[in-house]
Specification:
The chain has one domain. Helix 2 (31-52) packs across helix 3 (60-72) and helix 3 packs antiparallel against helix 4. It has 4 helices and no strands. 26% of the residues are buried. It is an all-alpha fold and 102 residues long. It is 77% helix and 0% strand.
Length: 102
């Protein structure tokens, strides 16, 4: 198994864990935690895609840009999916760093 294969598995496992956290937070009506967990689940899946294509970044904005330019703009994934990712990223920032309550 190559390093990238192991890294992809790790990212997908983390993503699954965050998705479970989001479901639990939604059941508890903790919407800020739900949004944050949904975003991190999507972020970790985005990282897995980057790794599969031989790239990586720890910067959230770099992952966003990569998804927009390398997947949506080239028609590899539907633009609506990347727009949803962008919305999650913005909503997560609001949920984690502002006094707005979702």
């Amino acid at each position: 198994m190559k390093f990238s294969d192991e890294a992809v598995k790790v990212m997908l496992g983390k993503s699954d864990s965050r998705l479970r956290q989001a479901r639990n937070a939604l059941q508890d009506n903790d919407l800020d935690v739900c949004i944050s967990s949904l975003y991190f689940s999507a972020f970790q899946r985005g990282l897995a895609l980057m790794i599969l294509r031989g790239e990586s970044s720890k910067k959230h904005e770099a992952v966003r840009q990569w998804l927009n330019l390398n997947l949506a703009k080239k028609g590899i994934v539907r633009v609506e999916l990347v727009k949803m990712y962008n919305k999650l990223m913005d909503s997560r920032s609001d949920a984690d760093y502002t006094d707005i309550v979702f």
